[in-house]
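$ run holo --ligand "1-O-phosphono-alpha-D-ribofuranose" --emit tokens
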Amino acid sequence: MVASDMLHSNNNTHVPPPDHPVINPKNYDDLLTVVSAIRAQVDVPLEAEIGIICGSGLGVIGDQVENPIVIPYSKIPGFPVTNVPGHKGNLLFGTIAGKKVVCMQGRFHPYEHQMNTALCALPVRVMHQFGIKTMIVSNAAGGINKNFQYGDLMLIKDHIFLPGLAGHSPLIGLKDPRYGRLFTSLHDAYNKDLRNLAIAVANAKKMRLFEGVFVMSGGPQYESPAEVNMFKTVGADALGMSTCHEVIVARQCGITCLGFSLITNIANLNVENSVEVSHAEVLETAKEAGERASSFVCDIIANM
Ligand SMILES: O=P(O)(O)O[C@H]1O[C@H](CO)[C@@H](O)[C@H]1O
Ligand SMILES: Nc1nc2[nH]cnc2c(=O)[nH]1
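-- output --
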């Protein structure tokens, strides 16, 4: 195992202080407690119109936030420990291109938290409480589409949420009517107008940009060649271990979503090929492509 693949090797590892209240991610009043605890930490009103989630190695997007107010996840009750390298573990409030944003510099993956997708998507509900109407979500993903190269960006036009299909929806068990519609529609989960805007931005920057279907598997193991072939057969273009549960919660909240994958590795379709994937490789590609991804996000926000 490569050192940077190891959980617990992240300097930002934290243990929540014992004085934090216990938070149930499916209790609406607990959500309001989390939001109050964040507000209590700063003496300025916090609000945002756009939420951003940085994928593995893509924390550099958060570095574009101007005049940031930085709240470490360790100071937020209910936010679990984040141990995955490449995820800093800060909630940032500030501006990008003059627009108020809140940015998750690091996310929670279901494989880290017993597949508790409601817990992992709790920060989306928190960002909604701070006013976001739009969310830009990013991830590092393995490319299946034969046209993809390392470092390509793929706009997500639709998704296949395997854990959700297997009973791990973040909406299961929500009873409070304040959450909104339990039977959330995903007909426009990755908003067409925002995708068109992103395509126009990419064209103006002369950037390679693809559109495709993202599949979320449970992880944390990468896919076997047979699994990659199965996903290809059902129409997937890229593979990851995040994002879908966040977008579903966002759609329940009425947030308009734009999602993209950074292709950090090429998924292996041939069992005879000995191609090892590692999180170190994922982070290395993200490091090389991170500036391009963050400039893309900033230009999209500037044109919203
Ligand atoms: O989805 P993000 O957070 O970008 O991370 C991706 O990269 C990691 C695997 O290398 C997994 O956590 C996968 O989900
Ligand atoms: N599931 C999955 N997640 C990834 N994240 C980055 N690369 C990959 C990959 O190949 N598969």
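-- notes --
Residues 279-302 form the longest helix (24 residues).
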